[in-house]
Amino acid sequence: MPAQLIDGNALAKKIRAEVAGRTRALKARGVQPCLAIILVGEDPASQVYTKHKVNDSTETGLKATLETYPADLSEEKLLARIRELNADKSVHGILVQLPLPRHMDSGKVIEAISPAKDVDGFHVASAGALVTGQPGFWPCTPYGCLKMLEDIGYDLRGKHAVVIGRSNIVGKPMALMLLQKNATVTICHSATKDLAAHTRQADVVVAAVGKRNVLTADMVKPGAVVIDVGMNRNEAGKLCGDVDFEGVKEVAGWITPVPGGVGPMTRAMLLVNTLEAAERAAA
Ligand SMILES: Nc1nc2c(c(=O)[nH]1)N[C@@H](CN(C=O)c1ccc(C(=O)N[C@@H](CCC(=O)O)C(=O)O)cc1)CN2
């Protein structure tokens, strides 16, 4: 039997409705949740993503501002603007769209954002909070993956989860979240020997590499849950993930599509984090 689809669009819609309800309640207390988005340069994909983020926010009652700057903006000017937004009490969340132009140090820029407004969950303080189980902001993409697992009623306790990819914004936080839910977690990466030997043991596989066909049907245990974080283009320019969807769906128990899987959930969890930031500031 082919895998059941985990519909990211449908779940994101449900989450946006919840955010809208909580936002109304906060507004009734005189607080307008506000997200400040910064885009540096003219990367077409980033332009699309930031526009979506503004629209999602507006539709759920959050305020979002989009500041765009030329690719040759100096790092100093960007840091100065972030410091202003940190001090602005009407702004609850600050997001700098990645990637930044090459002359900028992304780490330094992210560290300039106040941890209380780090709704992307990329700041080292947010990473530390995730490691130690303290309140903080969880990065939106892995947070969205976890919500998808929750939504299908999947109990991670004692399950073997394999995360392919070790980026700071997806792979590592994903592994920590799965660990927090009591899964046994393996992180695989470019130096892993015999990736298939690991993935074949997994009850849950999260593929977050940024390369097509990293996971094929022969690498998946029958019935496993497969979450595809990849966002690639095939030869025809069609959007596809890291997973060979057509093959793997015949083996897996659950699978996320690309598009319509993790992507919309990333956007939905940004709204959740922004609202959370505003609620915390108002508490
Ligand atoms: N500051 C940040 N920068 C980046 C992040 C991030 O979380 N914070 N993540 C990615 C890009 N990204 C969000 O910014 C993102 C990418 C894609 C989608 C999405 O909804 N994808 C759709 C397909 C869209 C299309 O047709 O192109 C889907 O999968 O259905 C959401 C968010 C890098 N930068």
Automatic annotation (TrEMBL):
Has the keyword Hydrolase been applied to this entry?
A: yes
Q: Please tell me the species this chain comes from.
A: Ramlibacter humi
Would you name any one GO CC term? cytosol
Which family does the similarity line name? Belongs to the tetrahydrofolate dehydrogenase/cyclohydrolase family.
What CDD domains does this protein's entry cite?
A: NAD_bind_m-THF_DH_Cyclohyd
UniProt domain Tetrahydrofolate dehydrogenase/cyclohydrolase NAD(P)-binding: residue ranges? 139-281
Its UniProt entry gives the catalysed reaction(s) as: (6R)-5,10-methylene-5,6,7,8-tetrahydrofolate + NADP(+) = (6R)-5,10-methenyltetrahydrofolate + NADPH; (6R)-5,10-methenyltetrahydrofolate + H2O = (6R)-10-formyltetrahydrofolate + H(+)
Per its UniProt entry, which superkingdom is the organism in?
Answer: Bacteria
Any keyword Hydrolase?
yes
| NCBIfam families in the record | PRK10792.1, PRK14186.1, PRK14189.1
What's a Gene Ontology MF term here?
A: methylenetetrahydrofolate dehydrogenase (NADP+) activity
Q: Name one GO biological process term.
A: methionine biosynthetic process
Q: In which pathway does it act?
A: One-carbon metabolism; tetrahydrofolate interconversion
User: Which key words are in the record?
Assistant: Amino-acid biosynthesis, Histidine biosynthesis, Hydrolase, Methionine biosynthesis, Multifunctional enzyme, NADP, One-carbon metabolism, Oxidoreductase, Purine biosynthesis
Return the protein name.
Answer: Bifunctional protein FolD
